[in-house]
Amino acid sequence: MNAKPIICYPKEKLKPSNLKIYQEAKKNLKVINEVIIPPRDAKCFQVKAGQFFRIENIEGPQVGDLNLFNSDNLDEKFYSGKTRALHGTHISTGDQMWSSFPYLRPLATITKDTLDWYGIDDDGGSVHDVIGTRCDPYTEKLLAGNDYHYCCHSNLIRALAKEKNIKTNESEKYIHDVLNVFMCTGFTKDTHQYFMKASPTKPGDHLEFFAEINLLGVLSSCPGGDCGSEHSSDKAKCYPLKVTTFSTDKTNLKGWSSPEVSAYNRKHGL
């Protein structure tokens, strides 16, 4: 009980961030694409390595569920569990979104977070979590007996199926645990249960990323709205989200290169 806690994966051992390079590159950004994600729906977007993308609140308090893939290989996708182990339960400027095994490399680096002022509140809550999985129809059926089709899991499935022209059951195999953009969450102090509370986000707030590799993003505008009351229903007031993609002059990225996949030899002792 009195044993000293030990950090499992010290961040100090990670390769130093290229954040200084990215901040310099941001001085010459050019908008190349915009995607509006309607409430209770999801859409896909493409970002090339060396480009930036920004998820923005444009009309009212709204959270989003983000999936990221290597656009050239859907098997390489965001790994929320390892991202959480490396950076903590909530991520912000300078933190990275890591890919799944056997690849384990940064997919994207957060370059700006307009909600970084929020910190950790008295309930232990914070924003942009990598602990929640995404609202889904299976848990809704389990706990409430409802067949609700516009939760984030289903939204992401529909968007990816349309983008890749694949069947629903194939698309579902690729959908994974998310980055909960703008969502305010934590664990209760007494029972350690996952909780949500109304997001502090307002129009103009955004979370900005640098694409470390070629990315396919899928973003759902959550049916919970600001997630201050409930999700997996049509009761909450919901708003659209916007994803903007930016290019920059490659001369501003001197010293940066797209990360390689894990160098582990994959023999696993055999």
Describe this structure in words.
The protein is built from 5 helices and 13 strands. α4 (152-164) packs across α5. It has one domain. The protein starts with 18 loop residues before the first helix and ends in a 23-residue tail after the last strand. Strands 2, 4, 5, 8, 9, 10 and 12 form a 7-stranded antiparallel sheet that branches. The protein has a 6-stranded antiparallel sheet with strand order 1-13-3-11-7-6. With 270 residues, it is α+β, with helices and mostly antiparallel strands. The longest helix is centred in the middle third of the chain and has 13 residues, at 152-164.
Write the layout of secondary structure elements.
Blueprint: H1 19-25, E1 30-37, E2 42-47, E3 52-57, E4 64-70, E5 73-77, H2 80-87, E6 96-98, E7 106-113, E8 126-129, H3 137-144, H4 152-164, H5 168-174, E9 179-187, E10 194-197, E11 206-211, E12 215-221, E13 241-247
What would the keywords be for this entry?
16% helix, alpha+beta, 7-stranded antiparallel β-sheet, 5 helices, 6-stranded antiparallel β-sheet, globular, 270 residues
Give the structure's gist in a few sentences.
Helices cover 16% and strands 30% of the residues.
The geometry reads as: globular
Poorly predicted runs of 5 or more residues: none
Q: Strand-and-helix sequence, N→C?
A: HEEEEEHEEEHHHEEEEE
Cα Rg: 18 Å
Kindly state the percentage of residues in helix.
10-25%
| Domain unit count | 1
Q: Name the average pLDDT.
A: 96
Largest sheet: 7 strands, antiparallel
Q: With helices defined by DSSP (H or I, 4 residues minimum), what is the helix count?
A: 5
Distance N terminus to C terminus? 38 Å
Quaternary state of this entry equals single chain
Strand content of the residues, in percent? 25-35%
Give the number of DSSP strands: 13
- SS-derived structural category: alpha+beta
